[in-house]
Amino acid sequence: MTSTATFDLTGRVAIVTGAGSGIGRATSLALAGVGAVVVCADLEPRTAAETAELVTADGGSAVAQPLDVTDRAAVRATVARVHERYGRLDIMANVAGAVTTRGPVAALDEVELDRGLALNLKSQVYGCQAAAEAMGRGGSIINMGSGTVDAAVADLAAYSIPKAGALQLTRSLARELGPAGIRVNLVSPGYILTGMTDPHFRDASGRPDPERRQQVIERQSAHIPLGRPGEAAEVASAVLFLAGDGASYVTGQVIRVNGGSVMPL
Ligand SMILES: NC(=O)c1ccc[n+]([C@@H]2O[C@H](COP(=O)([O-])OP(=O)(O)OC[C@H]3O[C@@H](n4cnc5c(N)ncnc54)[C@H](O)[C@@H]3O)[C@@H](O)[C@H]2O)c1
Predict the structure, then answer these.
(1) 32: helix, coil or strand?
(2) 225-235 residue pLDDT tens
(3) What is the model's pTM?
(4) Which residues contact 44 (CB under 8 A, 6 or more apart)?
(5) Which of 43, 150, 221, 223 for a ligand 1 pocket mutation test, highest count of atoms within 8 Å of Cβ?
């Protein structure tokens, strides 16, 4: 039964990975903002704690959880602990990810390839496996893709290959978990201003460079119909929609939050 309160997540429990920055932080704030208890997981304990504090200051409910998403045992243990503590898990947002290596496929060695796969694909497999077990019958898993899922970019294969894998992970699981009432979807951000894009706006010595920032943003925006980069909160809005009952008939799908930069058929 649909209602206008489709964004209300009161009483639901969520885990957000990569919660210490950017899209993960915005997602934590968004989910908690409509009532969810949010476990803010990140490799960086300090930034995870900062996010939990921001949520609390905003009137929401959150706890920080240090977690390396590339560590399968740690992911399983974290999810199991959350389930034990709250007696349920409703939402799993596998947001953590990063460009670990740049360079042509020809030069990609095994270590670099493994690093990209571990952080951007295998981590999401681990998160999905653990979450599905904890959710039992009913829940929403949101995986994180990228514009590189749809559009090939030179020198980014160690990132785009695993991100494309996350799409097929999402579709496979949507089929496998649909009968249990667990929905699985992918959010694919375009060019979003976060910790990931911040280094683009710095000079060679790592200092913020406003002129460079302006140039990069203008160059990127030229390919974006909405004419600007996105904000983390705009990606979090898509996660929020998928997390709740407003998306009760949505599974195995991709929501592209990219200002129109990529529009596949
Ligand atoms: N910003 C963009 O333009 C953009 C575009 C497409 C996709 N994405 C995706 O969005 C997601 C979030 O990125 P963001 O832009 O918010 O970047 P960000 O750098 O601001 O945040 C990423 C967070 O992930 C955490 N993290 C990194 N490795 C981790 C690990 N092993 N275990 C746990 N946490 C870890 C970092 O500490 C950081 O807090 C990523 O999956 C990224 O690939 C971002």
Answers:
(1) helix
(2) 999 999 999 99
(3) 0.98
(4) 20, 21, 66
(5) 43
* Helices 45-57 and 22-33: angle between axes, nearest 10 degrees: 30
159 is catalytic: yes
Give the domains, in start order, of the chain with CATH numbers.
Answer: 13-191+231-254 (3.40.50.720), 193-228 (no CATH)
Q: How far is the CA of 45 from the centre of ligand 1 (A)?
A: 15
Q: Hunting for tokens 């590339």 — which residue is that?
A: 70
Task: Indicate which residue of 86, 126, 159, 249 is catalytic.
Answer: 159
Give me the residue label for tokens 């559009």.
151
Ligand 1 centroid vs 22 CA: distance in angstroms? 7
Ranges under pLDDT 50 in the chain: none
Which pair of structure tokens corresponds to residue 123? 């981590």
Please state, in angstroms and as integers, the Cα–Cα distance from residue 90 to each residue in 10, 36, 68, 83, following that order: 11, 9, 21, 10
Place of tokens 């009968």: 179
